[in-house]
Amino acid sequence: MDSVLSEDPVALKILIAGGFGVGKTTLVGAISEIRPLRTEEVLSDRGVGVDDLDGVEAKTTTTVAMDFGRITIREGLVVYLFGTPGQERFWFMWDELSYGALGAVVIADTRRLTDCFPSVDYFEQRGTPFVVAVNCFDGADRHSVDDVRIALDLDDDVPVLLCDVRRRTSAKEVMVTLVEHSLRTMTSAN
Amino acid sequence: MNEPPRWLDEDAGPVVRPYALIRGRTRTSGEAFDLMAIVSIVGDPESYDLEPEQLLILRAARNPITVADVAVELDLPVGVVRVLLGDLRDHGLISVTSPSEKGPRPNERILKEVINGLRAL
User: Fold this and answer.
1) Domain containing B91: what range?
2) Interface test with B, best of A179, A187, A188 (most B CBs within 10 A)
3) Domains recognised in chain A with CATH numbers
């Protein structure tokens, strides 16, 4: 048993979002011990039309495995990473996941930049602090950070950085940038 | 709350679908527990006839533990774990403290600690 929580434990939540196959699992695995978290949700109206429910009308829940990572800062202070399901049909899970979240990392792939539009829109609307981490895949164009910022129409204060989610140092830099951004957002709101 | 009669017995065999553990319920008696809510033991389980999974939860929660961690430790879907936790709470064996009950946001000191901790990884 490796429980690290004690008297007054603090559990912080950070979301890892982005399009399908953009590197969410890799990022979580690069910086934390990754374990699958099984969750299941009632299929909402939003699932209808995507999931073919003909003939299975009785099926009202679906099981989803989420990437789940834990970073122990010290005893009683743990950061949890949740890889949000990329497919749009799992959007109904996001409200719960984003509730109380410290912030979010939106991973972008410059070859498919539009894939991260929904995530950016979502966190902007929720007021959840987020950073955009541009994953530099082999052979991908190294768009400048400014180009990505313009393409995504980001506010000036949203950090954008290049990263290689396979590398631990790069993953660390992404996480530090996010928490620093959350801290700035928090202190400027006070 | 009126409990429906128990239908699960040894004849069901060793393979039990997760929702059979909780007799088909998908909701707890109260509000749904947050994934980051902290589970702590507050009662003495001796006087109750508990399911094996509930005993595993109590073992996992010897030190306070998050709902998400309980689900990972038991390798059960979060929804099933929430119902099991709800039963344990209704028995007065555990408390489940959601993050919002402890204040809205972590303070500046905690975040600076996190930043330094991440850098030191």
Assistant:
1) 10-119
2) A179
3) 10-189 (3.40.50.300)
pLDDT at A154 over 50: yes
User: What span, in angstroms and rounded, lies between the C-alpha atoms of A131 and A152?
Assistant: 12
CA A71 to mean position of chain CA atoms: 15
For chain A, say whether B71 makes contact (Cβ under 8 Å): yes
Q: What is the pTM of this model?
A: 0.80
Which residues lie closer than 8 Å to B33 by C-beta, 6 or more apart? B67, B82, B85, B86, B96, B98
CB contact under 8 A, B121 and A42: no
Q: Which residues of B touch A186 (CB under 8 A)?
A: 105, 108, 111
Does the residue B4 lie in any domain? no
d(CA A176, nearest CA chain B) in Å: 6
Q: Is B112 on the interface with A (CB under 8 A)?
A: yes
Q: What is the pLDDT of residue A4?
A: 42
B3 part of a folded domain: no
Q: What count of other Cβ atoms lies within 10 Å of the Cβ of residue B21?
A: 19
CATH number at residue B23: 1.10.10.10
Is residue B108 within 8 Å of residue A187, measured between CB atoms? yes
Distance from the Cα of residue B109 to its chain's centroid: 29
Determine whether the interchain pair A13/B35 forms a contact, defined as Cβ–Cβ distance below 8 Å: yes
Which of A5, A39, A172 comes nearest B78 by C-beta?
A: A39
Q: B5 in a domain, yes or no?
A: no
| Interval A155-189: pLDDT, tens | 999 999 999 999 999 999 999 999 999 999 988 87
The reply to whether B1 falls in a domain is: no
